[in-house]
Amino acid sequence: MFEFDQYLGFLAFLSILTIGFWLMIFLLTFMIPYWVGGSIIEMLKEKREARKAKARQE
């Protein structure tokens, strides 16, 4: 059915595919919400600083 080198190639393909799948799942479940949350916090800080600067000018 399979020669030994074909079997090793198939195992390498499955390993790379599985690693890619889990990295994608990790990225979608942990990194993207962390990035979005950090962006929102930074945006709120900038708005707060702008409001404080405007209050100091008046």
From TrEMBL:
<feature type="transmembrane region" description="Helical">
    <location>
        <begin position="12"/>
        <end position="36"/>
    </location>
</feature>
<protein>
    <recommendedName>
        <fullName>Fumarate hydratase</fullName>
    </recommendedName>
</protein>
<keyword id="KW-1133">Transmembrane helix</keyword>
<keyword id="KW-0812">Transmembrane</keyword>
<keyword id="KW-0472">Membrane</keyword>
